[in-house]
Specification:
Its main location: membrane. The protein has 445 residues and is mainly α. It has one domain: Growth Hormone, Chain: A. The longest helix is centred in the first third of the chain and has 34 residues. It starts with 17 loop residues before the first helix and ends in a 13-residue tail after the last helix. The relative contact order is 0.17. The N terminus is likely disordered.
Length: 445
């Protein structure tokens, strides 16, 4: 194992800030990750009209990504633990980008074949993206001390909102000006270029050519797992019974179920929200694309603020449990405000309420910070995979349930109640199930 003394001695007494560049790269990649997930939410109305699809068929198309994404979580987490984050993540970016691009290619097939081929492409995008968020969690655990981990996790998690701000108007314009297939060509090409850049600039803490000894020691003293990618920690086989221990632990199960509820809000905004603006509120696809970015700006601000508040509470001496739970509970309470949209008519008032709900969702989206705090060191990737499996089951259920609610009622009223109820259930999980937040220690097999 490489010793701290082998790290570059440039600026040993001056603490570098290499970890912030690593976080920047994680943020950029996660932005693209969510933009590729959301392509169908922007192109969906045009596709639905062109291909003659009903709301239930669209619900299944929306959920295709999540079926494979969920199935890929445990294998993806194991691959991260076995082969390291850098290589596995690079392959993940390249593959999901390739299948995103391919979705545009199959769009040129005869209409009878497009839906099935497109569904398969979305499945493969989901499977390829599976290692991404467990990889993010591993990178944050390795590169950041505990007192900075909430902010770092909130920043990469807030990329989902930045993706909407940056790419939703762009994808709406491309759909309007060049057709829905062009969106997939552009997004796939961007991802392939980013995969090559990732391989060039990402390194583990002890092997990074620009990190100073002072920064490395600061990270390690503060609880950063700087050796996570090395030796036995990265190469160890899956411990017998490790998965069972995760699922039998009350704290972990409360976190897992809470993430499912929080992700129900995420997938509503990623899938049906632009359709809601077009079909329920009478906006054009171009206007909906731009309007969708406003709640996303609020979500981005809330996402960063939630992490800053949480880490600030840690630095002020509050327990990790209080520091993580307080923003989660407050944020989820704000998210329930979306139900008020059922009682207002003004388009801009709807956007304002949805912005408040999205802001609250951002504040409360600290699940990945909690994962970095609680995952057993030996199986950080697998633990993140289990967490993401539970969380992204919402990507399967949310679009389909909303599709059926729409078909039955003809409006989004019941759908908003369903999403708001999940915010309340997330509060229940963190207040009454999770208990003390601490790192889980695996028992010997």
């Amino acid at each position: 194992m490489e010793d701290v003394s082998t790290v570059s001695t440039v600026g040993e007494r001056t603490r570098t800030r290499v970890r912030y560049f690593v976080l920047f790269m994680v943020f950029i990649v996660t932005t693209l990750n969510f933009a590729d997930r959301a392509t169908l939410s922007i192109t969906g109305s045009t596709m639905q009209k062109e291909l003659g699809l009903d709301s239930v068929q669209m619900g299944y198309l929306f959920s295709a990504f999540a079926w494979a994404y969920v199935l890929g979580q445990l294998p993806g987490g194991w691959l991260l633990d076995r082969f390291g984050t850098k290589r596995v993540y690079a392959w993940s970016i390249a593959l999901w980008s390739f299948f995103t691009l391919l979705a545009g290619v199959v769009g040129a097939l005869p209409a009878a074949s497009v839906v099935g081929a497109f569904f398969l492409c979305r499945l493969m995008v989901g499977f390829a993206e599976a290692p991404a968020f467990p990889g993010n969690s591993r990178l944050v655990a390795a590169w950041f001390p505990t007192a900075e981990r909430g902010t770092a996790s909130a920043i990469f998690n807030s990329a989902q909102y930045f993706a909407t701000v940056l790419f939703t108007p762009l994808m709406a314009y491309i759909t309007h000006a060049h057709g829905w297939r062009s969106v997939y060509f552009v997004m796939g090409g961007l991802g392939l270029a980013l995969a090559a850049l990732w391989l060039f600039v990402i390194h583990e803490p002890k092997a990074h050519p620009r990190i100073s000894r002072a920064e490395l020691e600061y990270i390690e003293r503060g609880g950063g797992l700087v050796s996570l990618e090395q030796g036995a920690a990265a190469k160890a086989p899956l411990q017998r019974g490790a998965l069972k221990q995760l699922l039998a632990n009350r704290m972990m199960m409360g976190i897992y179920v809470g993430q499912y509820c929080i992700n129900t809000l995420t997938y509503f905004f990623l899938t049906w929200f632009p359709v809601y603006l077009v079909q329920e509120r009478g906006m054009s696809i171009l206007k909906a694309g731009f309007v969708s970015s406003l709640p996303a700006v609020a979500g981005f601000i809330g996402g960063v603020l939630g992490g800053v508040i949480s880490d600030g509470l840690v630095r002020r001496g509050h327990s990790l449990t209080f520091a993580r739970k307080t923003p989660i509970v407050a944020g989820m309470l704000m998210s329930t405000s979306m139900v008020v949209c059922n009682y207002v008519d003004s388009q801009w008032l709807v956007v304002a309420i949805m912005s408040l709900a999205f802001f609250g969702k951002g504040v409360g989206a600290l699940g990945w910070a909690v994962m970095s705090d609680t995952s057993p060191k030996q199986i950080a990737g697998l633990s993140g995979g289990v967490f993401n499996t539970f969380g992204n089951m919402a990507g399967i259920t949310t679009p389909i349930i909303i599709g059926y609610l729409l078909k039955q009622s003809g409006s989004f009223a019941a759908a908003l109640v369903f999403v708001g109820a999940n915010a309340l259930l997330a509060i229940f999980c963190y207040l009454l199930v999770v208990g003390e937040i601490r790192r889980l220690e695996l028992k010997p097999a």
